[in-house]
């Protein structure tokens, strides 16, 4: 089984697999890292046609890019490789703030190329918008990387509609990465309409609501053992909020059982049905979940099924903010 492709962007278009693979959790945030499992998952992804790989310099920090680089060695031509800069971290994992200064853009790109072991990045995102640096300056520096051949296409992550418009005026933006799922639909208000007006693709991260839409999560399964969801940084997974949100997820599970698929497949199929310009990047560290997710790309939902899903998880029903601190999200 292989999956189809989709095209991100029109002025600077990039054809990718209809589902990508988020590699972050292979190195950090969701429990103890297992590099061997990560390598096996990436290799299986490529075999299945999931060739759009997403990483960032901050994941690990730094080790996730190295892992992805090892995984694609000898198979670079098969891959559409996306990475990000801007969320600065130190070698011990300490967070050093957001940096969009041109000189940092250049040094971050060179460091990523070295860790990935490649001569170019297919899609280079600004991970978070730096409020202290005009977006025109940051994207101007990113455009220089395109001219130098180090980067093929540019992207932004968690940018507002206004910022996207300003950035796109400097250099064509191919894709914007932001959180989007049945559990997080704020992007529909202003960002998605702006993307469609400008001809920019949307790459949803956490398309399964950080695991809650898989149907496998319980109130006891979110622990503090290397799992960031147990921290106050993720309010949707705390106490009464988690209980309320698990009830919403249970409704998705019921609909999946009626359809004869898994909750993950149903949630991803809903997202894919929102437009051909949308390419979700579900993250996983396990081959079996990757294989499960891939099925979603061939799952066509009827209008009645799409409506039932939106009734099961109404906009505004999810309890808690996406992050405990939303200050880094460009508003």
Automatic annotation (TrEMBL):
One of its GO terms (cellular component) is cytoplasm. Coiled coil: none annotated. The keyword Oxidoreductase applies. Residues 19-312 form the NADP-dependent oxidoreductase domain. GO terms for molecular function: oxidoreductase activity. Keywords: Oxidoreductase. It comes from the Bacteria. PROSITE patterns: PROKAR_LIPOPROTEIN. This is Predicted oxidoreductase. It comes from Arthrobacter woluwensis.
